[in-house]
Amino acid sequence: MKKIPIRTKSFSRLVEGNYYFVDKTLMIKEFLDRGTDVTLITRPRKFGKTINMSMMAEFFDITKDSKEIFKGTKIMETPYVAEINQYPTIFISFADAKRDKETVVSTIRTQIQIQWDKYDFVFENLKGFKKINYERLMKY
Q1: Which of 2, 83, 17, 98 is nearest to 51 (CA)?
Q2: Portion of the chain with pLDDT greater than 90, in percent
Q3: What global pTM score does this model have?
Q4: Which of 23, 117, 16 lies closest to 66 in space, CA to CA?
Q5: How much is the pLDDT for 15?
Q6: How far apart are CA 112 and CA 9, in angstroms?
Q7: Which long-range contacts (CB under 8 A, 24 or more apart) does 92-95 make?
Q8: Could you tell me if 53 and 40 are in contact, meaning their C-beta atoms sit under 8 angstroms apart?
């Protein structure tokens, strides 16, 4: 029997955890059709911003293989299926950045460090000033 997702923020956990969910994967098609440089997504609290961004990150992230997660969804019936897992993707959520200023800064810093580590292979062949700047950043 399927469960009702309460406080679930991860699209992959939503699908793999056998939860009920509404297929909003065509949001990816709308995003790509728009073709803008920047997209601002505003919704009221508890309106699914984090889960939708998680879905998009799962779909685009080159470090993942998400075909199984998206199996049976609407996006897989479109030509955009060719875009799955083709792009370096940085997903940072402010959903857990709450309470006092120090906690918010710490939460955001941790998320940036996780993304940095995820793509550390990019930094292996740096040369010149890029390598110097990278080493300087690593000291902090």
Answers
A1: 17
A2: 32
A3: 0.79
A4: 16
A5: 87
A6: 18
A7: 93/9, 93/50, 93/53, 93/54, 95/9, 95/49, 95/50
A8: no
